[in-house]
Amino acid sequence: MTTLAEVARKAGVTGATVSNVLRGRGKVGNETRERVLAAVRELNYRPNLTARALAEGKPQTVALVVSSIANPFYPEFALAVEQAVRKLGYFLVVCNTNDDPAQERAYLDAIVGSLAHGVLVMNADFVQIEELVALRQRGVPVVLCMWEKPDTPPPLPSVAVDFFRAGMVAAEHLIKLGHRRIGAVLGSELSGNHIWRYRGFCEAMSRAGIDLIENGTVCGHDTIDAGRNAGHALLAAVPDLTAIFATNDLPALGVLQAAADLGLDVPGDLSVIGITDIQLAHQVRPALTTVAVPIQESAELAVEMIMQMMREKGPEGSAPAMLREASVPRLVVRASTARPGKG
């Protein structure tokens, strides 16, 4: 990585002058300022504000990159991370990308040597693994959180949750209740992040000798509105469904809304199950049956990993990726599921 001294030599000034230009302080002439900024751009220099923070005694920080703080799962995870890092004397910076690869890249560029000592990144459809690998190779500790397939780890230190198993658990619950006409609503495209949850669902159906229903799967987005739209589409295409599996709680809540729109009783006419167990899952009525994932444990594992990497900071590019797996997802039965035709 380019150093401040190299920028100073390129611009023909002192290191103090470069520092004053970048901090916007001191008396620096316009010509000198432009020469310094040109050298910064040419050498692709990013100030090491981590070292500056240590030197100046500023609070130490960890960054958490999430795809959308509008999704209530991410604030819940962020709270768990914040509690864990505060116990260690660190502060948390939350970076919201809005599922925008360019915005994610901008945050990662800013983070390098500036915003944080280490970076936690929530796994999502728009996460750019190659960018994170490059960040790690530049010496920045990076941990990918909530990776969905533990037996196929990414090329990064990661905390994984077995979402394939979560999909199986959800399907097995519905099958055990006696459901055979089961539809599915995905909170992503088939090529997206929720595919392992859906494959787990399909595996459980196959093991039970139950064929997937033609037109019985609708893909969309991980929102309540998308789940409501998907629920309407699914029930219009296959009106005799007795249960719907959703790959996340938000689209499951949307399916509950669709059922209410259509005058269907849940769970008397239709059972609904999701995955995650966000706070809203037990606050709605009927309360949502779901497969809970270990949010608190995953956050604590991620913080433990990033702290270890920060203590042992060094060339990480060629080191083997680490993976820690959190506890298995567990079924939480509430009021939205029952035997077919039973309230």
Intertermini distance = 64 Å
Strand arrangement within the widest β-sheet reads 2-1-3-4-5-11
The overall pLDDT average reads 90
Largest sheet: 6 strands, parallel
Overview of the molecule:
The protein has 343 residues and is of the alpha/beta class. Helix content is 45%, strand content 16%. It contains 13 helices and twelve strands. The strands form two sheets. A six-stranded parallel sheet has the order 2-1-3-4-5-11, with helices on both faces. Helix 12 (279-283) links the parallel strand 9 (271-276) and strand 10 (289-292). Helix 1 crosses helix 2. The chain is elongated and about 80 Å long.
Give the tags.
343 residues, alpha/beta, six-stranded parallel beta sheet, six-stranded mixed beta sheet, 45% helix
Brief account:
The protein is an alpha/beta fold and 343 residues long.
Can you lay out the helices and strands and say which pair or pack?
Blueprint: H1 4-11, H2 15-23, H3 30-43, H4 49-56, E1 60-66, H5 73-86, E2 90-96, H6 101-115, E3 118-122, H7 129-137, E4 142-147, E5 158-160, H8 163-177, E6 182-186, H9 195-207, E7 217-219, H10 224-237, E8 243-246, H11 249-261, E9 271-276, H12 279-283, E10 289-292, H13 295-311, E11 323-325, E12 330-332
Parallel strand pairs: 1-2, 1-3, 3-4, 4-5, 5-11, 6-7, 6-8, 8-9, 9-10
Antiparallel strand pairs: 10-12
